Amino acid sequence: MSATFTFTASDQEASYRLDQLLRERFPQFSRARLQEWIRSGAVKVAGQPSRPSHVVRAGEVIEVEPAEPAPLRATPEDIPLTVLYEDDDLVAIDKPAGMVVHAGAGVAGGTLVNALLGRFQALSGVGGELRPGIVHRLDRYTTGVLLVAKNDHAHRNLAAQFAGRQVEKIYLTLVHGRVKNETGRIEKPIARDPVRRARMTARLEDGRAAWSEYQVVRRFRNFTLLRVRIGTGRTHQIRVHLSSIGHAVAGDRLYGAPAEVAGMPPLGRYFLHSHRIRFHQPTTGEEVTVESPLPAELEDWMAQLPTL
């Protein structure tokens, strides 16, 4: 793209951050990409380079010269992986916190895909060159079981199981506050937050249908450990649903958790772990259950919480 787009901020657009305004004007691009344009000088406000945090005023003239991103390539990298289960069709990885599943805006390497290509000779190609073997995803700081297909047959079969809600997905999460009931079900549609585009929301009626069921595992003075089963796989689903009932996931500042907990060390991530996945082996049809224990850093942090 080489054309320059020029527009004048309207009264309704006044008080937007510059990156938020561009996200509204150019929804086909990610916020990370738009921020790259701003920082590189490809966006000018009143003829001058600006910052993503610039607060737009009505009547300001904004010039945007979109820049093409560098082409992404999925290349093998020597990154350690913990394998929980493996057969001829698939492998189950114990994904660590902080690892992005595949390359995207702002992330070109160090992903699970790079690690998989460095470890395994063959992966399915159904997901395309940038996502070999990837049947489903976990958020960057969510740990635990993640399935990867080695061949196209396995990929299509597993994808059909996920789409048909035949895969049991169990998570462990620690939330703020005392969850009143021992069990519960949250059934609220999930949509992109129209104001804060990095977030999802359960407050809009036109979102995609989603449900999550929870069971109390352990209670602490100011926290509750939950086992959560999800029947759908919406973006940030567990985090959004639990926040919507007033129980943000510990460490999840995006959805309302405080930055610090008095008397506790920094958590460094949000407390959400893919504990168990149960599915049918693509070729034999045999039921397979794969579990991942709660990571040591989460166990250690939870052990320091005051009990009832």
Structure write-up:
- 18% of the residues lie in helices and 26% in strands.
- It starts with a strand and ends in a 5-residue tail after the last helix.
- Strand 12 (211-219) and strand 13 (223-230) form a beta hairpin.
- Strands 5, 6, 7, 8, 9, 12, 13, 14 and 15 form a 9-stranded mixed sheet that branches.
- It has 3 domains: 5-64, Structural Genomics Hypothetical 15.5 Kd Protein In mrcA-pckA Intergenic Region, Chain A; 72-164, Pseudouridine synthase, CATH 3.30.2350; 166-308, 2-Layer Sandwich (Pseudouridine synthase), CATH 3.30.2350.
- The longest helix is centred in the middle third of the chain and has 12 residues, at 152-163.
- The protein has 308 residues and is α+β, with helices and mostly antiparallel strands.
Percentage beta strand: 25-35%
Separate helix tally: 6
Distance between the termini: 60 Å
Molecular shape: globular
| Name of the CATH class of the largest domain | Alpha Beta
| CATH architectural type of the largest domain | 2-Layer Sandwich
Helix-strand string: EHHEEEEEHEHEEEEEEHEEH
Low-confidence stretches: none
> What's the number of extended β-strand segments?
15
Look up the CATH topology of the largest domain.
Answer: Pseudouridine synthase
CATH homologous superfamily heading of the largest domain: Pseudouridine synthase
Largest sheet data = 9 strands, mixed
Mean pLDDT: 91
What structural category arises from helix and sheet content? alpha+beta
Number of domains: 3
Question: What Rg, in angstroms, do the CA atoms define?
Answer: 22 Å
Helix content: 10-25%
